[in-house]
């Protein structure tokens, strides 16, 4: 499942120290990265009365429509700034169909929380539009250099422009190359968890009445999960609603290997009628691969640098079990802005910024971490024990139990 704040910036370096005297800041908050995390942070900050400049790559004309599932709590975070009124889920998932990795055994379970299906680019664009309306300035250029200093943070862009702000929010995605120069560790997009995903359309099945159409304009979606495809946390999925079919495979494997495994599994799933009504399975060349930092936020020692906070995929804020990156992206942005609002009142704000790490861990850890249960032992039992199947569904939809 694709992430909505992908890291595409390629900075040359990030230097510390202010150097010569600097002009007044262009904004109180500079945000690098305009995906869901960066755009929601811009919106929250502007709503709190901070001046904001968001720096992001020029808009792409070939944005693929890619759907993600997320906890409906994301709308509770966005409702106060008016986004949920204009942006509704494309569909909702009320039941999960669980398969073993071979697709031979299955369990059908109710989702205790109806998962929202969201087109990541559509949500990002809605957030940007709302942010502009609140006065956020968006500079469409690639950030290539960061210089956090004692009094301000400076960003240099590929178009030659330079910006200064009191604070920086780094939201440039899972492949961010700013983390190591900021002293926050490296990001290696060539290894670790990746997701291979293909989205297409198929003819609609004969209308038999949809529960979603009966109760609301939002249709119901079906989500099938193939568990344990490679290790306890590897899984494949098939998402269907209306004419849309999305197939994905998420595993701890390099991209070239994952593509080959995706193509083989897609053929196997098609042979077992798990991809109905597709006439043929997609090949590996049709799918896209991206890094998925599932649960990596819990492994990072810090998300705070000098006058800088890291949010979204760049900080590894992706739920380890369910691969939900949208809710944690918006959640981490909301918490970061709360910290900035307090820090702007401080003569020496860095101590207040350091509170971000304790704040997000207290609030978000339970949602981000994998279940306490030993997954290798749990997975085989899901298909023979209805209570364990329900427990897994509960963790997948609402987060691991505390």
Description:
The chain has helices at 36-47, 73-78, 83-86, 120-133, 211-215, 255-271, 326-343, 350-368, 375-382, 386-398, and strands spanning 13-14, 27-32, 52-56, 67-70, 91-99, 106-119, 137-140, 143-148, 153-157, 162-170, 193-201, 220-227, 235-241, 244-252, 288-291, 304-305, 308-310. The protein is of the alpha/beta class and 402 residues long. The radius of gyration is 21 Å and the shape is globular. Strands 1, 2, 3, 7, 8, 9, 10, 16 and 17 form a nine-stranded mixed β-sheet that branches. Helix 1 (36-47) packs parallel to helix 4 (120-133) and helix 1 runs parallel beside helix 7. It has ten helices and 17 strands. 29% of the residues lie in helices and 26% in strands. The two termini are 26 Å apart. 48% of the residues are buried. The chain has one domain: FAD/NAD(P)-binding domain (3-Layer(bba) Sandwich). Residues 1-22 and 206-215 have low confidence and may be disordered. Strand 5 (91-99) and strand 6 form a beta hairpin.
């Amino acid at each position: 499942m694709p992430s909505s704040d992908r890291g595409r910036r390629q900075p040359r370096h990030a230097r510390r120290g202010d150097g010569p005297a600097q002009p007044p800041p262009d904004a109180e908050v500079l945000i690098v990265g305009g995906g869901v995390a960066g755009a929601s942070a811009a919106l929250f900050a502007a709503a709190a009365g901070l001046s904001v400049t968001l720096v992001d790559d020029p808009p792409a004309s070939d944005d693929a429509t890619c759907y993600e599932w997320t906890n409906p709590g994301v709308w509770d975070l966005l409702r106060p700034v008016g986004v949920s009124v204009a942006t509704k889920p494309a569909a909702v998932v009320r039941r999960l169909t669980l398969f073993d990795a071979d697709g031979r055994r299955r369990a059908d379970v109710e989702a205790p929380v109806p998962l929202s299906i969201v087109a990541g680019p559509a949500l990002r664009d809605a957030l940007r539009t709302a942010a502009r309306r609140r006065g956020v300035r968006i500079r469409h250029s690639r950030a290539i250099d960061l210089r956090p200093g004692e009094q301000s943070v400076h960003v240099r862009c590929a178009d030659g422009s330079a910006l200064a702000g009191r604070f920086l929010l780094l939201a440039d995605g899972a492949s961010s190359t700013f983390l190591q120069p900021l002293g926050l560790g490296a990001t290696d997009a060539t290894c670790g968890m990746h997701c291979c995903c293909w989205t297409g359309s198929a003819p609609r099945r004969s209308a038999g009445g949809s529960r979603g159409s009966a109760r609301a304009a939002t249709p119901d979606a079906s989500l099938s999960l193939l568990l344990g495809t490679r290790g306890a946390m590897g899984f494949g999925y098939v998402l269907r609603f209306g004419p849309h079919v999305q197939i994905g495979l998420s595993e701890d494997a390099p991209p070239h290997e994952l593509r080959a495994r995706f193509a083989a599994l897609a053929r196997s799933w098609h042979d077992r009628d798990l991809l109905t009504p597709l006439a043929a399975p997609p090949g590996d060349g049709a799918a896209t691969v991206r890094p998925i930092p599932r649960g990596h936020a819990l492994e990072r020692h810090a998300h705070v640098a000098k006058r800088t906070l890291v949010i979204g995929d760049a900080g590894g804020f992706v739920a380890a079990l369910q691969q939900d990156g949208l809710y944690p992206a918006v959640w981490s942005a909301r918490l970061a802005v709360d910290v900035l609002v307090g820090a702007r009142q401080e003569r020496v704000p860095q101590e207040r910024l350091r509170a971000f790490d304790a704040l997000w861990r207290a609030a978000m850890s339970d949602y981000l971490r994998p279940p306490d249960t030993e997954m290798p032992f749990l997975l085989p039992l899901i298909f023979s024990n209805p209570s364990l199947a329900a427990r897994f569904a509960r963790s997948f939809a609402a987060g691991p139990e505390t």
